[in-house]
Predict the structure.
Amino acid sequence: MNSSPTNGSDDVPERLAGSPTAQGMAVPYITVAHRDRSRPVWGQLDPARLLTALVDRLCQICGQPLEDPAVLHLRPADYLRGITPEPATHQDCGAYSTRMCPMLAGQMQRYNPVVRDEFTRCDDPACGCRTWGRSEPDPNHTPREGQPAEAWYRVEIGLSDYRIITDPGNDHQPSIVGIDLRDLRFRSLHRIRDAAPGTGDRQPVDLLATLIVVRTLFGEGGVLS
Ligand SMILES: [Zn+2]
Ligand SMILES: [Zn+2]
């Protein structure tokens, strides 16, 4: 979702026109970046902005208030756990992200490991990069690094169904704050990309794929693309 940009179409949605850009791509609101936001650390999420986006119902791409319907990008593991740590997006921001992000566009088969050299401090004394070296890895996202790519799905939900919860975690999973997926009504459900080839035995059970089959049978609109 916020890995280095692809060379895809740069057809930028109007609401992103004023956003800071780097390498020709709008820098997502939740991506770690130096103060002027034009020098991001692709693939790294800013925990404070992540929480603000979730709690204040902001789009994770443009940082503006969400509209109805809200779009979620989900992995099978999120659905199994009943919570996603990824803030929602607008429809057009989500479509833009799907085109530009190499992970969502299916061009990457493995998540980027953290490259510590990218955490270079700048000369701006007011920039948040002063604290980067001391911050802990984001527990919501570090398990993904270096791991084979999972399948990703796009769902649309009603904004009135958007609920933030805290999952306390257990011996195997850290606690996370995120959007409650249990009993959440999906207005639409589409597969964006498949899991990395040959990793089926290392992937979680894909109940979202099953759900699409069920929805298709009952005419509720689901597409395995
Ligand atoms: Zn800086
Ligand atoms: Zn947006």
